[in-house]
């Protein structure tokens, strides 16, 4: 018995001595959601940072070895399911790359650690990140993640189709301005694409090509009709029945006019990309990053020659032309060991350096995360990023960080599906959303 | 055989007027059954019991599964403020302070913080109070002996801080104690209310069932499920299965085996592959739309392009899998019909149709009932083919109960996994399934099927 204790003590002692002298060896795992071929730098940036950190350690005289293992999910539902369930099983990756809106529920459930405990936000490069992006990574007064990218969502217009129905060069060029000021509304857009169809420029039912699946994009239309997602004062979610009715009515009217089919939602992404890149739609809405996909994968040759881009137009006088940014954030899993989280957090900070992040921004056509990044020549030379930064980015806002937002979001999209396919009228659908959300969230939501 | 020669039967007969003799329980039998019982418990009773428990909770992504801490957040204070918590109390709870004192230094030493660093803290800042932790961290970073890693410095700083805001406490007592120490002026009743509300884990509730009972979506889902199960079952699993069995019955043996095997293909093809093949078959540029285009019919994505074709696709692709099940069962049952009856009917001049109608169908009652019962239950709970093909679309027009339960609990775009609500939906399926089983067993006259034979051998 005594011998056992002694042996154990000796082993522990030797172990700790060995640990002091031996190399530090880490395997850092990164899981990234919504990540396709053009956005691999979400993971590769961490690999680059690891490389740099090992070199720094070597110069300092430390023996540090880091292996970064990455896994990318092209979709969101699979990724969020995987991250959540892996966390519950205490088997999550060290770093998760997800939408900032996940911070609410995941922090509440204790699935993630606040990154502000692991890094200094007032040192380079984190101190150069735009404050509004840091704001999207903040919940309950704590900063939980480091913004990984930003973007703007865009209404795209086919220039050849506009020309074919007699728009002058001036009219096409001033469109962005007219949309921004609210002069050119969503209903003006419907009339325009209807004309394109009537004149045979665009195939019937192809005038308007909205996003084919759920996404933050649809909140833009809620805002176009005067909706507000949350109250800036109290942080409570706001269900604006009038705005919901307005946006549902808009899509129902689009179906009614025959510029989009009532079964458009659920179309395959590839089909949508092909149509967008080939100029088969009169207008369509997507994100800044789609341009990279159309050029790299779908054969769009002359983007600036063929496509005009604007904010999402206002729907009514109450609403505004707008665009939503949906920053992804690097998050620290709560199931890692403390040491792994320390390394992971420092890797995230290093990967946020302007030149490293610019690789992701340019390759995937996402917007940069800091002013410094726009000065990186590689980034500055990209015409699209500069254009989007000046025309769209200043008008963007993000969806709220609120652990109940998912409930509202799911209900909003179900209402959209119901009114789009004609299963409910816009009024019924909007009322159903209000009832569902009120029933689930009670006093934590404001009805307007 | 004489009953005198058989003491067991004899004994049984004598005992019957009193009560039927129970078969002795064999220990060997129990041992042999044990693995099955274990598996049954692990993979059936336990999941059903857990589903039953989860159904009465608000378990979701934000509550986490099977745990919960006590955390007071600014959001919680705001919510409590709406419910009457006074501003003074809220400010007291949100208070945080940093004091550099002997107790803090002792805590830090015990936690293993570097001695030289602590010595320098003691020398420079002993006795100081900070309003906000950020100021203390800033000062610490200026020290020569400050640790290189932000995490090390911040964890050391946290040991001098007193606050409850955003701290996770494992037990309600720990939070209550900290609250009492930090803000003694808060009344015990208010404190208890704060602690109770700060629990992040799941709570028991019947809200899920109330929501299911009152939301309009339920009616549509039930309607869709009825349509899906009813149409697939009647048209394919029973209808097509029976038709094929009868047709193959009249075919020469070689051809009949070949066709039987072919009809098994949908069942033996892996479900993902089967779904992909249907996509090739029905999508734009796929076989059917190209064919339709050639003959001048409307050509589009039949799987998702219209509500009617989406339903037709969904029912057909599920039906082809189910038809093979009916086919096998019905073929077996058909072979049990004495051929003499058919020969006799042919002598009497019966046509094929008359044979089917008067001889075959009446003897197929039980197989048909069995297939109906079994396939109803299996269709009710199946969603994987639908998920992989129409995915409930276009819109949510082809969504059924099981698919919606799966999406609610485990797979949706916003990542808001409502395990509790999903479990409630699953529980409804379990209850409906059990009720239907009982009804079917009565319809079957199952007791007759497994009852004692009426003749003694």
Proportion of helical residues of chain A: 40-55%
User: Helix count of chain B?
Assistant: 23
Please give the CATH architecture of the largest domain in chain A: 3-Layer(aba) Sandwich
Domain tally of chain B: 2
Uncertain spans of chain B: 1-15
Question: Largest sheet of chain B at a glance?
Answer: 3 strands, antiparallel
Q: Which whole number gives the mean pLDDT of chain B?
A: 88
Rg measurement of chain A, Å: 24 Å
CATH topology of the largest domain in chain B: MetI-like fold
CATH superfamily of the largest domain in chain B: MetI-like
DSSP strand tally of chain A: 16
**CATH class call of the largest domain in chain B:** Mainly Alpha
Please provide the count of β strands of chain B: 5
Indicate the CATH architecture of the largest domain in chain B: Orthogonal Bundle
Helix and strand content put the structural class of chain A at alpha/beta
Fraction of residues in β-strands of chain A? 5-15%
